[in-house]
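Hello support,

Our group uses your service weekly, and this is the first time we've seen a run hang past the timeout. The protein is NAD(P)-dependent oxidoreductase. I'm not sure whether the cause is the sequence or the server load. Input pasted verbatim:
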Amino acid sequence: MAGQQRVAVLGLGGMGRAMAGNILRAGLPTVVWNRSPDPARQLGEQGAEVADSPADAVRRADVVVTMVTDADAVVSIATDRGMLAAMPDGAIWAQMSTIGVAATEDLARLVAGQRPGVVLVDAPVAGSRGPAAQRKLVVLASGPDEIRDRVAPVFDAVGQRTVWVGPTGAGSRVKLANNLLLAFINEGIAESLALGRALGLDRAAVLGAMQGSPLVSSWAAEKLERIGRDDYSPQYTLSLALKDVNLALREVDVDRFPVAGSLATEWQRAVDRGLGAEDLTVVTRALEENLGA
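Update from on-call engineer: The timeout came from a worker crash unrelated to the input. Re-ran successfully.
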């Protein structure tokens, strides 16, 4: 029964906190841990059990979710902080952070070598903080067919849709392709608005023409609305978006993807200017400022 699934969520940043809240609201017994205690304490006030360590969080868990910044953080939680050793045999580890292909393969080898009784599911998500809060993420899941029903209540709690894309590791590959498309859409918005400014057009006029266009997705429309208010508060930070582009480029011959390489170089300049903690749409502001706007 879904209500009997005990879930541990490790990592309560912008995404993990919203996901843990949705798992809790779905009626699943939920244990939470975070490096800084405040997000865990707030979820504790909503009914979650708060653990003192990753190892304590997972000791009786059926499904363990990790949602942290990068591969180093995942490995630190799994090994240095004792998560993997403390997981019960038969438990499922749903690794939902975006860490790239090579790091996911390293984790698969780690689990196979140290804890063959634990099932690793590679399941990054498409979506940012807003969709996470609204339970509108898309889970890009990959792993053994036989565990799909067991992990479904957790994935259903955090997302509007789960897409099973293949064996463990395929999810991370699809996520990199997905995020590269997102990066190009963001860059297209930024460069189009900057071009309008360079052509002497009023930004509001360009935004008005774009809103409602068949070329503009619901994601892009929401970003255009926020840009119109000069609201670059982070939903998906530029630093994280750049990390994901670089993860993709790390797996391929960069010379075959010159546009992605150029985008990464441009975004790195913006991060170096101190814009990395802003939403990735801040690229628009950076381009306009370069025009003297």
